[in-house]
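We modelled the chain as a single entity of 403 amino acids. Its sequence is:
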Amino acid sequence: MQAPFSEKTVTVSEVNATIKACMDSPVFQGLEVFGEVSGFKYSGPHAYFTLKDKFSQLSCVCFNARKTYSPKDGESVIIRGSLDYWVKGGRLSLQATSIEPVGQGMLALEFERLKEQLTLEGLFDEAHKKPIPQYPKNVLVVTSKTGAVIRDIVTTVRRKNPIIDITVRDVRVQGEGAAHEIAGVLKRVDLLGYDVIIIARGGGSLEDLAPFYDEELVRTVYALNTPVISAVGHETDFSLCDFVADRRAPTPTAAGELVAYDYYELIDQIKQNISRLTLNAKRVFERKSASAQLSFNRLRLKAETFYSEKERRIERYLQSARQSVEKKVINAEAAYRLLAGKLDGLSPLKVLSRGYFRLQSGDKTINGVSSLKVGDSIKATSFDGDVTAEVTDVNIKKRDPRR
């Protein structure tokens, strides 16, 4: 039987290899493809998704995608990369080397980059936040006078407080140059003595709120000495100005609530406190006065008892002391007489009166015959006088060696 192959017959691998060779040509390298993201998902570090437009779609893969921008489904992007054909599976895909958002996505990406940079610098740290005064007197609102924002803030404040001074600085709150204008106003008013500054505008798109993501404005707010409340956009909007401010209000109305302490309630509380303190002070005085009188009476009784007992004890101590002193004086006199007798018995004059003489040769006292020699002049002193003589003979006794 003849084989069903002809000269044109090729294998699947040959077809796929041919397609692969075509896809590897320079024309399919370094492409920039615009489309909408669909089915974006990660598998390990890599991302797989579909890029589509109104009429067609293309499978895409991005290796190590976590290092690049991660788009959301439905977001318009530009994919830079090259076409690749997987021979074994017979599938064509666009291998992305970069993903770049288009339109609002690019703006959001730039804001996110700036947010990360300023976060690393510490501009959003809680340690730098200044407290909002509990009872502010002068409030500055930086916003557009033509919008409903200032009316909302003033109405909210005046409903609770008629005495807070509210000053408005009119600025542009969207468009090119708005951020620079707001920053300049903040720098000029910072040292004018305001208790708190409210930066406010209504809601809008990301492009409308772009001035409040501006780096110059954020750094200006960070450097202010005056506490700042940021009330930008709706409750779900979070601008960089919100992060750097000392307090964020979800809406301008909420900012008014933050600064407007309830004046009328405070007055009522003060009146109630004064009445309560007056009554309490009167009760405390009466109670303390009665207690003091009772304590005084007890103290006086204790003092009388104490001092009477002390007086008797002191009298006993004095009597005992007198007796002790008298006894010691008598004993001292007896001891004195005894010592005087002993001292008198040891007196050199007493010794001399018994027939003894004191011998001296010059200034030296003669204690033995061995210290004299023939011809020495000596002085003999007795109790009734002294005589001078010359040594004519010296006779020294020999000592018994056994003694």
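As a brief sanity check on the tokenised model: The two ends are 163 Å apart (CA to CA). The CA atoms of residues 79 and 288 lie 86 Å apart.
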